[in-house]
Write a structure and sequence with these properties.
The chain is an alpha/beta fold and 251 residues long. It has seven helices and six strands; from the N terminus they run αααββββαβαβαα. It has helices spanning 19-32, 46-59, 61-76, 137-151, 167-177, 200-210, 224-250; strands spanning 85-94, 103-105, 110-119, 125-132, 157-160, 180-183. Strand 2 and strand 3 (110-119) form a beta hairpin. The longest helix is centred in the C-terminal third of the chain and has 27 residues, at 224-250. The chain is globular, with a radius of gyration of 19 Å. It starts with 18 loop residues before the first helix and ends with a helix.
Length: 251
């Protein structure tokens, strides 16, 4: 499934580690949340896994893997490979002493970074970005939808929550990606607690899936690029499991 996307091992020099073994080690880390040095003995050396992770991050491999898996998952559900609408939301997460860019989200009282996701009707990620937590959702909407348009130019609609409302923000988002923005609000203000809202629950469910990746419980990365690579690794793992389910059922 993922083998053709991984770079082949070098033929010259010392014996190279199988890229699939590197991928399995990274999936183990994203699921269990262990540090590099705590990789099991049956995994490749942690320095090898670490160096390959940074090489794949810099080459944009994770972005390619998530995009290809997303299209395969949509086609497996009988849909077109590219969507026409997305649902947008963000998630603030604390950072650690590793440092790097960070900010304070006054609304959620979180000092760290913010993950911005745009998902389709199946909850599959179309685009994800990471900023400091101090960046307002409405300010991050235009760059996010602009990236969605470049990746999937057939997307024409987006659904967001009240944190993205504002004529100026929606106008900038439309100019960036030619995507209309629809704010989905709670109609019954007297209802307290969690309420499932049409459209918005799709991205909330995806954020719930991400929470199962213990490596992402906090942002341990020192750079935005590494934090985004770990997020894409978790998304790739989730979509791979989704694609594998029909095959398991058939056997």
């Amino acid at each position: 499934m993922v083998g053709p996307l991984l770079p082949p091992a070098k033929r010259r020099g010392p014996k190279q580690t199988d890229p699939q073994a590197i991928l399995n080690a990274l999936f183990y880390m994203i699921r269990c949340g262990c540090p590099w040095r705590y990789l099991p003995k049956d995994c490749p050396p942690f320095t090898t896994v670490q160096n390959r992770f940074y090489a794949w991050r810099d080459s944009g491999l994770w972005t390619q893997i998530v995009s290809v898996f997303m299209m395969e998952a949509r086609e497996a559900e009988g849909r077109e490979a590219t969507p026409t609408a997305v649902v947008v939301d963000s998630q603030s997460v604390k950072t650690t002493e590793a440092g790097g860019p960070r900010g304070f989200d006054a609304g959620k009282k979180v000092k760290g970074r913010k993950r911005h996701l745009a998902v389709d009707a199946l909850g599959l990620p179309i685009e994800c970005q990471i900023t400091a937590a101090s960046i307002q959702d409405r300010d991050a909407l235009a760059p996010l939808l602009g990236a969605v348009h470049r990746k999937s130019p057939w997307v024409k609609m987006s659904f967001v929550d009240g944190g993205y409302q504002g004529d100026e923000a929606q106008r900038a988002a439309f100019e960036a990606g030619r995507i209309t923005v629809t704010v989905v609000k709670r109609t019954d203000k007297e209802v307290k607690g969690f309420v499932v809202l049409r459209k918005r629950w799709l991205v909330e469910r995806t954020l719930g899936w991400i929470n199962r990746a213990r490596r992402l419980s906090k942002d341990f990365a020192a750079t935005i690029e590494s934090a985004l690579a770990w997020l894409q690794t978790a998304l790739a793992f989730l979509i791979m499991r989704r694609l594998a389910r029909p095959k398991i059922a058939q056997t």
